[in-house]
Amino acid sequence: MTRLPARILPLLWLLAVSAVAADLPPMVTSYAEKPVQHFNRQLDKARREQASWSESPEQISRHYAGAQFTLIRTVQRKNETLAYLSKSSLEYYQQVLLILTLQQQGHHWALKRARVSWQCKRGQHFSTAPCH
User: Fold this and answer.
1) Which of 9, 31, 64, 80 would be 115's cystine partner, CB 3.0–4.6 Å?
2) In 29-63, which positions are buried (b, 16+ CB within 10 angstroms) versus exposed (e)?
3) β-bridge partners, 68
4) What's the predicted TM-score (pTM) here?
5) Which neighbouring-strand residues pair with 118?
6) Cα(123)–Cα(121) distance, rounded to whole angstroms?
7) Would you say 68 and 120 are in contact if contact means Cβ atoms under 8 Å apart?
8) 129: which DSSP letter?
9) Which tens digit of pLDDT belongs to each residue from 60-83?
10) What are the backbone angles phi and psi of residue 18, rounded to the nearest 5°?
């Protein structure tokens, strides 16, 4: 986790507002990596059993994240798809953002990376800073 100097925060706010206006992905200043190896084994098994959720990046993303998360958007880049999923947490009045990178391998997909970040205040700024 990288902490940013306080003088950078006003610049981040300006970038976040610009991102909203331009319909860009949310501003993430830090995130935590989540393991994906066990899920990829489940995905391989589901694919062999022809489970419907194993066929598309959107369905795979929803399955990984679980029912509490909502798929916000997907972005296709060459043989990769980025999936942005969000969950509101009323206990801490924060929003949790899950960013998944799925990689196409032939006709199949694998989860390459899973990152999580959260938002303690309204706006587009997400980090791993504790919410007070």
Assistant:
1) 31
2) bebeeeebeebbeebeebbeeeeeebeebeebbbb
3) none
4) 0.76
5) 96, 127
6) 6
7) no
8) P
9) 999 999 999 999 999 998 889 999
10) -65, -40
